[in-house]
Automatic annotation (TrEMBL):
InterPro entries: Polysacch_pyruvyl_Trfase. Keywords: Transferase. It comes from the Bacteria. This is Polysaccharide pyruvyl transferase. Pfam families: PS_pyruv_trans (PF04230). Residues 13-306 form the Polysaccharide pyruvyl transferase domain.
Amino acid sequence: MKIDIITLHYIWHYGSLLQTYATCKVFEKLGLETEVIDYVRPNASETEEIKAGVVAKGYEKKPVKKALFIISKKIENKRRKKFSEEFLKKTVSMTKRYSSFDELKMNPPIADIYCTGSDQTWNSEYNGGFLPAYFLEFAPTGKKRIGYAISIGMDEIPEKELEQTKNAVLKYSAISVREDSAVKLIKKLGYESVQQVLDPTLGLSLEDWKPLIAPDANNGKYILIYKLNPNDKLEKFAEKLAKEKNCKIIRVSYYLNHFKDQGKMKYSPSVEAFLSLIYNAESVITDSFHCVAFSLNFNKDFYAFYPGKYSTRISSILELTGTKHRAVGESEFSYDVINYEYVNEVLSRERKRTLDFLKESCK
């Protein structure tokens, strides 16, 4: 039996790549043939993303800053595209490229089951509006539609999208979501049987991930920073923790402007090297959901900073694993040791529950 998955595989970002890989591997554990639908949303082209960055920075009427920003982004993107495409090419099977929803609707890939995957596929704010492709509106009539660890990320579905979203959602035979807030939103649409499950990256155990982790690069004793958003408090916290633990700081980043920050820079390493940096770190400091997820899976001493927007993804997994005390700056924060016996017990239980749900959904 073949399942075709639509997700955000094309984002040149470790989390997006790893959740795509993990989604396929989880379904393959159930004996399914997997294929990723190579559809790219309209606002995700390099040109559109750079244009949005110029606006966000306020550089539209500052020609020198605008030019420097565009040059730096193109340099960064060249490296990110390289490690992303290399990873996907060797780890997942993909369809031909679909450049629009109309093309997908007219000539959909052939499969027994169609699946909306994880990683903010139903976050219309992030995706630039309601996108029918991510709601499987291209799937042939009569074919099963399911959702696996879908993330909405938003606190509410925009009023203008409610009717369209509801009509699409009610066509699914099974829906699972990543965060508890998404359960409430889907139920408000009239879909009562929605379930919360683990993110696909946590659906695989440490033993499943070990073959993908690059050998230790002999970096010595270090604290790893993986920061996606500007945060001076995170930097100060890292400096303090490094002194207390007598560790150096290593920073993994895609961004050229992070070379000026503290620590040794690991600039856009391979996906396998990224996993190795987490696995071999003394401690991990991050505002990334997937970095938190891998820190939990690898049983690391970690410290999470909520990024502001879309923080529900991190708070939800911390709540589930009893690690809310590792959200720095929050009321419950403490340095108390993480009870990994409990964390591993929870993850093991939830993996089984997720697999049982998917097995039933794919019948």
